[in-house]
Amino acid sequence: MNDYKYYLDYGIYDIQDGKYADAIEKFDKSIELKNDWEIPYFYRAVANQALENFDDAILDYTKALEFNPRMTDAYYNRAKILLSRKDIENPDLNRAVSDLEKALELDPNFAEALYAMAAAQKKIENYNEALRYLDRVLELQPDFIHARALKKLILNKYL
């Protein structure tokens, strides 16, 4: 089979079935056949992220963004990796904030990105800014439980 879309589609099905290693093989084949568009890089990054192959995921999100700098989810997912990594001592929080700023520039109502930005601001001890992002999340989604909990934590423990 020499159809890049065939491999892409079946790779996406593998992701949906939780078969991430199989998905990566299919995305590799899709990229081998057509390496000049963002979609297979994005989905290969998703699969690598699920397998906690974070460096590979970051590389693929970056490659996807080179082809399409308007991929909001690629910025968000790359930032989430940087914010949640426990395998490195000092993750690049500034890069995470920059990615989240770009995601929010593209989609100002992206509640999960707003929440992630609040978490990033908390990590860099910018508590008032974190509260500002949490207030925006709660405007959009008043029942966003994690945002309520983080806001309560910041108010009770840090301010």
Task: List the SSEs and their pairings.
Blueprint: H1 4-16, H2 20-33, H3 39-50, H4 54-67, H5 72-84, H6 93-106, H7 111-123, H8 127-140, H9 145-158
What does this structure look like?
- This protein has 159 residues and is mainly α.
- It folds into two domains: 1-69, Tetratricopeptide repeat domain (Serine Threonine Protein Phosphatase 5, Tetratricopeptide repeat); 88-159, Tetratricopeptide repeat domain (Serine Threonine Protein Phosphatase 5, Tetratricopeptide repeat, Alpha Horseshoe), CATH 1.25.40.10.
- 76% of the residues lie in helices and 0% in strands.
- It has helices at residues 4-16, 20-33, 39-50, 54-67, 72-84, 93-106, 111-123, 127-140, 145-158.
- The relative contact order is 0.08.
The pLDDT mean sits at 96
Supply the number of structural domains: 2
CATH superfamily of the largest domain: Tetratricopeptide repeat domain
What's the CATH C level of the largest domain? Mainly Alpha
Fold-level CATH name of the largest domain: Serine Threonine Protein Phosphatase 5, Tetratricopeptide repeat
What radius of gyration results from the CA coordinates?
Answer: 17 Å
> What fraction of residues sit in β-strands?
under 5%
* Class from secondary-structure proportions: mainly alpha
Largest sheet report: none
CATH architectural type of the largest domain? Alpha Horseshoe
Which key terms come to mind for this protein?
159 residues; mainly alpha; Serine Threonine Protein Phosphatase 5, Tetratricopeptide repeat; 2 domains; 76% helix
